[in-house]
Amino acid sequence: MSPYVTSVERFGFQRGLKEGRVLGLEEGQVKGLLDGIDLGLELRFGDQGMRLLPRLRSIQDLDTLQQVKDLLRRHDTTLEDLERFIAESGGNGAGTQHSEG
């Protein structure tokens, strides 16, 4: 015989599943952006660009990572521009989280 599950428990379970899916989707988006940024840094700046990766990996905010990707697409962006942006955005190894909206 199955244990009785109240409507409150069922609602909590369903809400937990939904929140887990959203978090998984965000994590996947962050990973995808970081993979693209990794490739862009390697192609544009070689080994010097790759040294930015540890700081970039501490950033988990989708908007910030999208801005880094957009900077990489610009032909006039220098490595120093990227370093400055990352430092100003909190990519200092402390780790930032995507804000829930």
What does this molecule look like?
The protein is 70% helix and 0% strand. Mean pLDDT is 83; it is low at 93-101. The chain has one domain (8-88). Helix 1 packs parallel to helix 3 (62-73). With 101 residues, the protein is an all-alpha fold. It contains four helices and no strands. The protein has helices at residues 7-50, 53-57, 62-73, 79-88. The chain is rod-shaped, with a radius of gyration of 19 Å. 9% of the residues are buried.
How many strands appear in the DSSP assignment? 0
Low-confidence stretches: 93-101
Structural class: mainly alpha
CA-based gyration radius = 19 Å
Outline the secondary-structure elements:
Layout: H1 7-50, H2 53-57, H3 62-73, H4 79-88
Helix pairs in contact: 1-3
Features:
single chain, mainly alpha, 4 helices, 0% strand, disordered C terminus
What's this model, at a glance?
The chain is mainly alpha-helical and 101 residues long. It has 4 helices and no strands.
